[in-house]
Automatic annotation (TrEMBL), chain A:
Catalytic reaction list: RX + glutathione = an S-substituted glutathione + a halide anion + H(+)
InterPro entries: Glutathione-S-Trfase_C-like, Glutathione-S-Trfase_C_sf, Glutathione_S-Trfase, Glutathione_S-Trfase_N, GST_C, GST_C_Tau, Omega/Tau-like, Thioredoxin-like_sf
GO molecular function, one term: glutathione transferase activity
Organism: Lithocarpus litseifolius
Family: Belongs to the GST superfamily.
Listed name of the protein: glutathione transferase
Ranges of residues in domain GST N-terminal: 16-95
CDD domains registered for this protein in UniProt: GST_C_Tau, GST_N_Tau
One Pfam assignment: GST_C
Entry's Gene Ontology cellular component terms: cytoplasm
Annotated GST C-terminal domain residues: 100-223
Automatic annotation (TrEMBL), chain B:
Enzyme class label: transferase
Listed PANTHER family: GLUTATHIONE S-TRANSFERASE U17, GLUTATHIONE S-TRANSFERASE, GST, SUPERFAMILY, GST DOMAIN CONTAINING
Keywords: Detoxification, Transferase
Enzyme Commission number(s) from the entry: 2.5.1.18
Keyword Glycosyltransferase set for record: no
GST C-terminal domain location: 89-215
Lineage: Eukaryota, Viridiplantae, Streptophyta, Embryophyta, Tracheophyta
Protein name per the record: glutathione transferase
GO terms assigned for molecular function: glutathione transferase activity
Organism whose genome encodes this protein: Lithocarpus litseifolius
Superkingdom of origin organism: Eukaryota
Catalytic activity: RX + glutathione = an S-substituted glutathione + a halide anion + H(+)
Pfam entry (one): GST_C
Amino acid sequence: MASSATVTANQLIIMAELKLFRTWSSPFPLRVVWALDFKGIQYDTIFEDLSNKSSLLLQYNPIYKKVPVLVHNGKPLLESLVILEYIDETWKQTPLLPEDPYERATARFWAKFGDDKVLPSIWNVFIKQGKDQEEAIVTAQENLGFVERQLTGKKFFNGETIGFVDLAFGWLAKLLSLWEEVCGVTLIDHEKFPLLSEWIQNFADAPIIKESWPPRDKLITKYQALLEVYTSKEAPK
Amino acid sequence: MAKNDVKVLGAWPSPYVMRPRIALNIKSVNYEFLEETFGSKSELLLQSNLVHKKIPVLIHGDKPICESMIIVEYIDEVWTSGPSILPSDPYDRAIQRFWAAYVDEKWFAAMKGLRSAQGEERKAFLDQVIEGLALLEEAFGKCSKGKAFFGRDRIGLLDIAFGSFLAWLKVTEKVNGVKLLDEAKTPGLVKWAERFCADAAVKSVMPETEKLLEFSKFLAAKMKGAPPPKN
């Protein structure tokens, strides 16, 4: 490694510092993990316990106090999709977003739809009961219908390779079947959502993605406990 | 590009609709403004925005683009000969996008809550709005670095995102009898707001406060008479 007389090797390492604050289970920092791993970028990981947040996390993210936070050369970046765009713009190898402006706008649209509509609607199915859950299922499946159609003629949302929208929906590939198991509702079956079912398989088993998943049994325990909290809050219907 | 190659589907009171119009003005792009009738959605809107059925929609040639801030970024990426709306540095871009998302997801959500809330709840929303403005004042200082706008010398992404809410902010001040942008507490934003509203790209699309106030009264009356929402 070249270093001038006034800059030590250590200083170079600190200057090129990339730190990711995450938790063991949260799917949002996983998006950042995937993006960095796909591009072959080295970084340090700091695992946070959200019930006992580090002073560093609170300093970097005072507004939301959440993960992920990516710190690059001492400067914090917040919000996973914003971070993904930053990564794509800073490191040009293995691009996540397409080049064409219309395709980029389309990708951003679906990633936003995933976070604004799909995820909350599926979470509602998970935590609600009775009639509320039935209504939640209808909404969730309507949303998933839109997503299914986006896969027409494609292996991944990005085409032949994984891209921005695939990373944005990545949580679906692992957490959906888990939540379905814990709450006893099937949202995505192979008949109604053949493309999405296929995508889930392809994405979950893809290199880099495959190795990144948190342990399934630990996740099951976590969501079972969470569901109990919600069920005890809900009035019987 | 011929005028009818670029269309914006929208409505004059909507802050979200203002955003692509400001962006197109910055780029000196001629476009056709297709105004939706309040209370109904045109065939064109329903076809162009199948998922949300909402305004704004930008129709470029035959391609529909939806979601106001996504449209603004699209405009910036297509019309590269005009002034840039996003900065060139990736970190600066991330900061602009972060705060634009904050304005929509947190700050304006509190503003909307304020509109319909009563009593204690109303006070809570008001506190959130004012707290948010303090954060944005600080962000303005950091982003502008002493210049006129969040985008420094020129109107940028965050100016458009936040500035498009200024007319509604003025209406909210009148309706609630409060000063939200305050020379004492948010001096930077007060001056910024004046410059933003006076900008050539903004003036023609920013609704007059009185007109918007009338519209908000009309909307409030409609809400009272409307059936309860399904969800």
